[in-house]
Design a protein that fits this description.
alpha/beta; two-stranded antiparallel ribbon; 9 helices; 29% helix
């Protein structure tokens, strides 16, 4: 991974619990705020896509990227295009950080969700939006880890089983946050392996025809990056 340790800020929620970025980590931060978590992931070697709906917070994320690129002009550069910006290293073969302004339901593509190995959703969404969140997360590939502000396994006051939410619960830690002095209980999940999900569906009497037939390789996960 790139030697960017000297720029890494203090840990953001979930970083310690979910572990350091793995090789070829591709992270989505949905509701990135000022981009602090997205920036830390990038500095630790991950490729990151961050999305923010509030323009003021999106603008602060752009300013943070610009400051870092200005401080290290020989190692980092930032480019702008319409409602998005990209921070990358001088070696374009390494990961990058892209931030977009808008609604993540509308501007994150299915292939980008499928490519992700890590998803942060640290925003409180209205209950009416949770069916859309679950549909969004169904595009994840096996092994993708997800951290959410709210419990995804519950909807409408009822707990739903893995046949309708194909993720394994891997913990609900209370993590320190700038906006919660006593911390907040986040919820962490991991997308089930294809065979495990197929067995669960079959036990539930459902046909597993919607499942992908093969795992995505590392090259397939990063295909959308080369085309971006």
């Amino acid at each position: 991974m790139p030697d960017r340790w000297r720029w890494i800020p203090s840990e953001r929620p979930g970083m310690h619990f979910l572990g350091a970025p793995r090789q070829h980590e591709i992270a989505l931060e949905l509701g990135m705020g000022r981009g602090r978590c997205a920036l830390q992931l990038f500095l630790q070697g991950a490729t990151v896509l961050g999305v923010e709906l509030a323009f003021e917070r999106y603008r602060k994320a752009l300013e943070a990227m610009e400051r870092l690129a200005h401080r290290c002009p020989e190692e980092l550069r930032v480019s702008f295009q319409n409602s998005k910006a990209r921070l990358m290293g001088a070696n374009t073969q390494t990961g990058f950080m892209e931030v977009r302004y808008g609604d993540f339901f509308q501007i994150v593509k299915d292939e980008e969700i499928a490519a992700a190995t890590l998803i942060f959703l640290q925003v409180c969404l209205p209950r009416a939006s949770w069916p859309s969140v679950r549909s969004f997360l169904e595009h994840c590939s096996p092994g993708c880890r997800v951290l959410t502000f709210q419990a995804c396994g519950e909807q409408g006051g009822e707990t739903r089983g893995p046949s309708s939410f194909p993720f394994r619960d891997i913990g609900s830690p209370v993590l320190a946050c700038t906006w919660a002095t006593a911390g907040h209980r986040f919820h962490c999940y991991e997308r089930l392996d294809l065979e495990e999900e197929r067995r669960i569906l079959e036990r539930s009497g459902l046909r597993p025809e919607h499942l992908p037939q093969t795992r995505k390789t590392c090259d397939e996960r990063q295909g959308w990056l080369r085309a971006a």
